[in-house]
């Protein structure tokens, strides 16, 4: 549920859960077993690099497995996966939540680790992500996600807007959660809450984190050195679809956690003013270029910010109204 405001992610969520987020204190790794789950759908162009990175980790635990869960790929993904020493499972139910649940129920590790198929792990990613679990009280850990070599306007926008910054997820002062793209959780704790909600096709990691924190009474840990490089959406159409999907997910989270989100009429009005402001900013910047210097980077960001904002909040308000009628 990534909101359309720069420096925020997945909406403006007010919550006491923010007290659950803290940085990893740097304790030493332990000997628990781990299962790395790689969900994938039509990831032929990236899955090979992801698996090479996952399988070449420095300081792997002694008991360690890699499971790829395919969600019905039709681009040769499965043939590529079979070239690597990993388990390949299949999930017929569409959606990331269903795919992760297949991996959760099939894996044998004490720690369930998720790495999306469009990411590249640093060599010590797994060791650093598992490090906080040497503390028996640690239940849920989020790693650091960095945009991988952004080249297109859409890729540059995702990086500059800060969608993957930790202060917008694991260190969010309003509503802390772990981005599922780089996540580790004790398997038994995840099973105890029923895994991921398969009715959610976006913001499922926000919901998962909130339910897990409440059930386990735990703190979210942030492992800054557990780095995954993420390939952002490359073209405008994909970016718009991503924004709309996050907007729909945000609306459902706002409905599901009303006390934490504190959504009300005044907040809705502020959002609408923000939408208007971002809609006119590209035109205003073009006028400014007639009398002063405005960088192409600033103008590009304003155009993409308008695009994202319209798609995100348009889908948000549509879903909000629909959810209200169905309640």
UniProtKB/TrEMBL annotation:
Pfam families: Glycos_transf_2. Signal peptide: none annotated. It comes from Pseudazoarcus pumilus. Residues 35-190 form the Glycosyltransferase 2-like domain. SUPFAM superfamilies: Nucleotide-diphospho-sugar transferases (SSF53448). InterPro entries: Glyco_trans_2-like, Glycosyltransf_2, Nucleotide-diphossugar_trans. This is Glycosyltransferase 2-like domain-containing protein.
């Amino acid at each position: 549920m990534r909101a359309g405001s720069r420096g925020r992610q997945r909406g403006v969520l007010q919550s006491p859960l923010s007290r659950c987020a803290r940085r990893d204190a740097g304790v030493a790794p332990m000997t628990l077993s781990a299962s790395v789950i790689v969900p994938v759908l039509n990831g032929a162009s990236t899955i090979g690099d992801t698996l090479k990175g996952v399988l070449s980790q420095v300081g792997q635990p002694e008991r360690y497995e890699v499971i790829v869960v395919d969600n019905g790929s039709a681009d040769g993904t499965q043939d590529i996966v079979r070239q690597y020493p990993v388990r390949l499972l299949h999930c017929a139910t569409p959606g990331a939540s269903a795919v992760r649940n297949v991996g959760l129920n099939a894996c044998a590790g004490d720690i369930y680790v998720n790495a999306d198929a469009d990411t590249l792990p640093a060599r010590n990613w797994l060791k650093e992500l598992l490090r906080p679990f040497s503390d028996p009280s640690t239940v849920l850990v989020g790693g650091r996600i960095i945009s991988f070599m952004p080249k297109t306007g859409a890729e540059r926008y995702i990086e500059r807007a800060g969608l993957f910054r930790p202060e917008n997820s694991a260190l969010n002062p309003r509503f802390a959660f772990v981005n599922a793209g780089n996540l580790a959780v004790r398997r038994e704790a995840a099973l105890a809450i029923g895994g991921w909600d398969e009715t959610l096709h976006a913001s499922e990691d926000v919901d998962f984190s909130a339910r897990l924190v409440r059930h386990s009474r735990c703190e979210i840990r942030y492992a800054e050195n557990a780095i995954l490089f993420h390939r952002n959406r490359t073209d405008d159409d994909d970016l718009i679809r991503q924004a709309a999907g996050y907007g729909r997910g945000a609306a459902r989270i706002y409905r599901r956690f009303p006390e934490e989100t504190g959504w009300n009429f005044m907040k809705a009005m502020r959002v609408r003013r923000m939408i208007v402001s971002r809609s006119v900013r590209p035109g205003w910047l073009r006028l400014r270029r007639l009398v002063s210097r405005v960088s192409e980077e600033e103008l590009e960001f304003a155009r993409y910010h308008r695009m994202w904002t319209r798609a995100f909040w348009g889908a948000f308000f549509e879903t909000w109204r629909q959810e209200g009628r169905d309640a």
